[in-house]
Design a protein that fits this description.
Chain A is an alpha+beta fold. Chain A is built from six helices and eight strands; from the N terminus they run ααβββααββαββαβ. The longest helix of chain C has 19 residues. Classes of the chains: A alpha+beta, B alpha+beta, C alpha/beta. Strand 7 of chain A pairs parallel with strand 12 of chain C.
Chain lengths: 191, 240, 800
């Protein structure tokens, strides 16, 4: 028994409705099958660049417009001149970087000598860090070094990172750390 | 004529983009693997792993001469033996679509004998979910293909190992590339090019890649007596 | 990279050494395979036969850490057989320069002139170089003297020839363990790119940088590229495959102690004013040298104006923190100081140093000496949770820890720079989930709160905090977490005229008087009055550009959208390409066509290496800390007490910490195997962004230790066994892979085994994955870059 496309969709739709992994999305009415079969047709499509290695592959990100607002698919951008749609194992798994139940989605705080994290509001955490920064800066600020030369630096705070954030964030990050007087500023490029 | 794949194994680097892209598109869950002493994890295909890059070190005189990579998947046979066997129990369990040639396993494969289906496959592809009894394998990304897109694995391939298109063009491409490759690897061969829609170019002996890399490695398979009896007394399986 | 990824396809010979691109930069292999498809040769030189090696025309095994010996042998081969590109070498390199006659190298001691001894062991001395003699002879105009015939015994060419005389095939092979016939084949294949119309390229990565001689390994290769005339060519260049999606960008933005944005040196205590700083601007007396860095005063003034818009740069220079002269605040020193309890607070932003840095147990201990730490990371990691790590009692750890959840790449807009210097724009797809916030907003809100405290309470030296640019960073009328204005910051980085508010077209419009603001002169032109150049997706190209895969209208490449650096070296004195079939630029009579040239001057009006004061490619490199020529030294941990090139066993200027020296294994029978660390395709860096990704963990679920079959028999280890790899610093558990892809090497009369393991794992997750390979690596570093030596160390391996 050979089937044409219409019957084929109809049959497999009925059949896969009962499977555990209806990954095809075929549990749809056959009349609108072609459009509906492709889940990404109903999504917002944006371009991005892979976050792993430095080749800079282009990816298409499909975001659900209807309910969750979450990512539903990430694949290679066929128009991108470097990867022309291709992705390695890591790039192909990008979807799970965004959609991952193990992501940290709350501010966590660990008090000295305690053995667990507790959740904290942003405002509280950032205010406390700001106070800690000011305290450490004011205490360890060196205006003149041992030779009497003006150095105006904060010796008591160090910073590492990050090759994983955008240029604009990095530019501001270095500006802000230098404005606070830090000189111990390092990151991935050194290792 | 339908669609086809050409997979040029001289170009595969085992980046495994295809293996993960398949999982991503189908949203197949990850397996809980434990490294068995190889880069090739999971060790085998499964109900939730349709595509697997198999890896074999190729040695000459105790020195490694090549590292063979074989992105294994359903060949979407022109005359699929799995369907012939499956049709004996449920004609709607395994479907073959007319225009693309996709061989599609549906939920009704739970009405079939999984061992029988797996053994009917010359390439040892189909795998059963023990809980539901459903059998699965590569679906050629049928939803993408009928919408004019490449299968997820083919799109992901960086090195030009995987190609997809009309079977006629694919066969011509395979033949042309074979002629080129033969100049360097005289034993190079295409895997069952007239019987399948997924044509591999092996630059070494197919058996060096995997024991079921081509159909001829095992020859035509017959039912054993035991299986024939099992078939006679199979009535414990419910039907939809 | 001097070139870019697509350009690899133009190569006649691609050397993969110190890199494993098929596994660590897999999509680069698209272009490697294109080159191969066009008849290009692919060479892989590696301690292991890798997935990259499987596609190579030639694979050469080697002992980890012997790259200078191998490449030095190639320099000798090229010079002995006159295979260099003579016109290029004479016109575009410093081969003809006459060196100070007091410069010397003692081949027996293995030391250059000017060495100042600080300490001594049986097998090596340590110290630093006084570089007074590493100079050129100057003529009356203050321009280096040259001998165009390259015959003068004091010319760079002759000194180099003498230096590499000792790099004989026998000695190289004895050192590296590479078979002589393979080495010779390698030298021959690669040297063929010395033909004017051929180009060879090098793909290297951390396999080269992570050695105490790392910078000199790269220099040796750069010298080969200059000898063969490969720099500036399509399919040529010196190409570092960088590790992270925006590590090029974060380096450009100078998240490093020694530079401020776009490679200007960090102000130091001995340069108290902007005038003092500008007095160190590189100069030249040669009218034909562009000496591009002469423009530095414009770039520093514009940077200061970008940071402090309301101040005169002369004043805001005082607000820049200054290092002491000679102060080293690099990674290993930073964690050493943290270990000594010198810091109160610490930010680990998108980083996991407890697994990524050398000698990770020292790092982990160091974290417990802090009062507080801020970790910004997508997933839980060994740094954030160090206080509950293996053998740590949380009840004894005082460190207060804040873990802040950021957005991931597809949840925010902004630019990232790849290794090929393409600055590419990302758009926002989904919004960040839960309380996740884009990093820029975390910074902005934190800094705003610090500023508010100084406004309210005062404090020490508040001026830089109160005056830092806010108007170009924050959106008007918006609140956390939607206040960071990525587009405005991008415009600030590209630069604008302070008076008109108009974006500058490129960095030639920047001024040294504070009338322009530009956050990063290399980004200048990325956002002009015509809009965001980084977001361009136009594949228009001329035939000449299409021929070599240039996409000048796709994204933006720094500097000034130049895609191949030093491209003026790809043409002859008349501006005609040496390789007409893959021309990068060409003088058509009144203008350049093709790529953006290194300056628009007509042919031969300027020397091609515009970033060097003299304008030439440097065989003799007087700026290096460890010698103007590369020299082979063994890693700080090695299996021998002596080496065949000289009496100096280790790099005499390597960065190390005296008190840790006793933990170094040299010829230690308890740790007889050469260990090396690396990455695999399926994971990334410390694994934080892959170990937590189920599809990737599935493909590589535990750390592995790869060994050769002979070592497997020796230690009764089979593939799949759980093993322990250990040394004086720590131990890790791995799954053994016993494979003929590794082979024992005959070196210095011994049979040596190597043990390879990845640094992708850590105790946090998965529980049976094994801990970080950096528990084994030593805190020693390169004297130029201070990058730790994590590629070569000594270990033992045993069955668990």
């Amino acid at each position: 028994m050979k089937l044409g496309r219409r019957e084929f969709i109809k049959l497999s739709a009925t059949a896969t409705a009962v499977t555990a992994f209806a990954g095809l999305g075929m549990n749809l009415q056959p009349t609108t099958a072609k459009a509906q079969l492709l889940k990404i047709h109903w999504a917002k499509e944006t371009t991005s660049i892979c976050c792993y290695c430095s080749v800079g592959c282009g990816v298409l990100v499909h975001t659900d417009k209807s309910s969750t607002g979450r990512c539903i698919n990430i694949e290679g951008d066929p128009d991108h001149p470097i990867n022309e749609g291709a992705l390695c194992a890591k790039g192909a798994a990008l979807y799970q970087v965004a959609e991952n139940e193990n992501r940290i989605t709350k501010v966590l705080y660990r008090a000295p000598y305690t053995d667990k994290y507790v959740e904290a509001p942003w405002g509280w955490a950032l205010q406390r860090i700001a106070e800690k920064v000011k305290e450490a800066r004011d205490e360890t600020f060196v205006q003149q070094n041992a030779n009497g030369q003006v150095v105006n630096r904060t010796d008591g705070i160090a910073h590492v990172g990050s090759a994983e954030i955008e240029n604009e964030e990095n530019w501001y990050l270095q500006a802000m750390q230098r404005a606070m007087g830090l000189v111990y500023i390092e990151h991935q490029a050194r290792i | 004529m339908g669609k086809g794949f050409f997979i040029d194994l001289t170009k595969c680097t085992a980046c495994r983009g295809c293996q993960v892209a398949c999982k991503q598109w189908h949203k197949l869950p990850a397996e809980d693997t434990y490294n068995w002493g190889s880069y090739q994890n999971p060790e085998d295909l499964s109900f939730i792993t349709y595509k697997l890059v198999r890896m074999e070190e190729y040695e000459e005189n105790g020195k490694v001469k090549d590292w063979l990579f074989f992105p294994d998947q359903c060949r979407h046979c022109i005359s699929p033996p799995c369907k012939m066997v499956g049709d004996m129990d449920d004609e709607q369990a395994i479907l073959q679509e007319y225009e693309t040639g996709t061989v599609m396993f549906t939920g009704r494969t739970k009405n079939l004998f999984p061992d029988e289906i797996r053994q009917s496959c010359p390439y040892d592809i189909p795998r059963e979910d023990e809980d539901s009894g459903v059998i699965s394998k590569c679906d050629m990304c049928f939803d993408r293909v009928i919408n004019g897109m490449l299968p997820a694995c083919v799109l992901a391939c960086p090195t030009g190992s995987m190609h997809f298109g009309d079977l006629e063009d694919i066969k011509a491409m395979a033949e042309e590339r074979l002629a080129e490759v033969k100049q360097i690897y005289p034993d190079a061969v295409l895997g069952d090019p007239n019987a399948v829609r997924v044509i591999y170019l092996f630059h070494r002996r197919p058996s060096d890649y995997y024991h079921s890399a081509v159909a001829s490695l095992h020859g035509p398979r017959r039912f054993t007596r035991k299986e024939a009896f099992a078939r006679l007394f199979r009535n414990n399986r419910p039907r939809v | 990279m001097t070139n870019h990824y697509n350009d690899l396809m133009n190569s006649d010979c691609i050397l993969m050494m110190g890199a494993n691109p098929a596994e660590c930069h897999p999509i680069s292999f698209k272009w490697v395979m294109k080159a191969k498809g066009k008849g290009g040769k692919i060479l892989s030189v590696d301690p292991r036969y890798t997935r990259s090696s499987s596609k190579a025309d030639l694979y050469v095994p080697m002992r980890s850490g012997t790259d200078i010996a191998i490449l030095g042998g190639m320099i000798k081969y090229i010079m002995d057989n006159n295979l260099y590109f003579e016109e290029y070498v004479k016109n575009y390199t410093n081969a003809s320069f006459l060196v100070n006659p007091d410069y010397d190298f003692d081949p027996e001691k293995g030391l250059f002139s000017g060495f100042q001894k600080e300490s001594e062991a049986d097998f090596a001395v340590f110290g630093y170089y006084d570089r007074d003699t590493w100079t050129f002879q100057m003529d009356d105009d203050g321009i280096p003297k040259k001998d165009p015939t390259l015959q003068d015994p004091n010319c760079v060419y002759q000194l180099m020839k003498k230096h590499f005389e000792r790099y004989t095939l026998d000695r190289v092979s004895e050192t590296s363990g590479s078979p002589k016939d393979k080495l010779e084949e390698f030298y021959k294949m690669y040297s063929e790119t010395g033909a004017p119309d051929k180009a060879g390229t090098i793909m290297y990565a951390m396999g080269w940088t992570q050695h105490t001689v790392g910078a000199q390994i790269i220099r040796t290769m750069a010298m080969i590229q200059l000898l063969l005339g490969n720099v500036g060519m399509a399919g040529g260049g010196v190409n570092a495959l960088r590790g992270t999606s925006n590590v090029q960008g974060s380096t450009d933005q100078a998240l490093l102690f020694h530079i401020i944005p776009a490679y200007m040196p960090t102000p130091r205590a001995n340069l108290p004013t902007l005038d003092d700083y500008n007095a160190t601007t590189p100069t030249t007396n040669d009218p034909k040298s562009a000496n591009w860095w002469q423009n530095r005063p414009k770039y520093i003034a514009s940077l200061l104006k970008a940071m402090y818009p309301d101040a005169d740069p002369k004043d805001s220079y005082n607000w820049m923190p200054k290092l002491d002269e000679g102060q080293n605040a690099s990674w290993l020193v930073l964690f050493d100081h943290m270990h000594q309890g010198k810091f109160k607070g610490f930010f680990a932003w998108g980083m996991n140093p407890a697994a990524s840095g050398a000698n990770a147990s020292k790092t982990r201990e160091a974290l417990s000496k802090l009062d507080w730490m801020v970790s910004v990371n997508v997933f839980d990691n060994e740094t954030a949770s160090f206080w509950k790590g293996p053998d740590v009692d949380p009840g004894r750890v005082k460190t207060e820890v804040f873990v802040l959840p950021p957005a991931v790449f597809c949840e925010k807009e902004g630019s990232v720079s790849n290794s090929g210097r393409w600055i590419q724009w990302r758009y926002q797809g989904p919004k960040p989930p839960g309380q996740c916030v884009r990093d820029g907003d975390i910074m902005l809100e934190l800094f705003s709160r610090v500023r508010a405290l100084y406004e309210k309470d005062g404090g020490v030296f508040p001026e830089p905090i109160l005056n830092l640019n806010q108007k170009d960073i924050a959106k008007e009328g918006k609140q956390f977490p939607e206040r960071f204005d990525v587009q405005k910051v991008a415009k600030l980085m590209s630069g604008y005229d302070v008076n008109t508010g108009k974006q500058v077209a490129n960095f030639t419009q920047l001024k040294d008087d504070g009338s322009t603001a530009c956050g990063n002169w290399l980004h200048s032109g990325a956002w002009t009055e015509d809009g965001n150049m980084m977001a361009r997706r136009d594949k228009d190209q001329t035939d000449m550009q299409a021929n070599i895969g240039l996409f000048p209208n796709w994204s933006f490449a720094w500097p000034v959208n130049r895609r191949v650096l030093y491209n003026r070296a790809s043409v002859d004195q008349d501006g005609q390409p040496y390789a007409p079939d893959k021309a990068v630029i060409k003088w058509d009579g009144d203008k350049w066509v093709g790529d953006v040239p290194d300056g628009g001057w007509p042919p031969s009006e300027r020397h091609p290496f515009i970033m060097r004061p003299e304008g030439f490619g440097q065989f003799f490199g007087p700026g290096m800390a460890d010698g103007p020529f590369p020299e082979h030294y063994e890693s700080m941990e090695c299996p021998f007490e002596e080496q065949p090139f000289s009496k100096q066993l280790h790099s005499p200027t390597a960065l190390f910490f005296e008190e840790e020296l006793e933990k170094h294994a040299v010829c230690d029978p308890r740790h007889p195997f050469v260990g090396t660390s690396y990455r695999v395709c399926e994971h990334w860096q410390t694994g934080i962004m892959t170990r937590w990704v189920p599809w990737l963990l599935e493909t590589m679920p535990q750390n592995i230790a790869e060994i050769d079959p002979e070592l497997g028999r020796l230690r009764e280890i089979k593939s799949g066994d759980r093993v322990i790899v250990e040394n004086l610093r720590g131990q890790i558990e791995c799954i053994a892979i016993v494979t003929p892809r590794l082979q024992p090497l005959k070196t210095m009369g011994q049979t040596l085994h190597q043990v390879g393991t990845t640094w992708h794992f850590g105790w946090v997750h998965p529980k049976d994955g094994g801990d970080s390979a950096n528990l084994l690596t030593p805190s020693v570093g390169d004297p130029n870059t201070f990058i730790p030596e994590t590629k070569t160390f000594m270990v033992n391996i045993r069955k668990k």
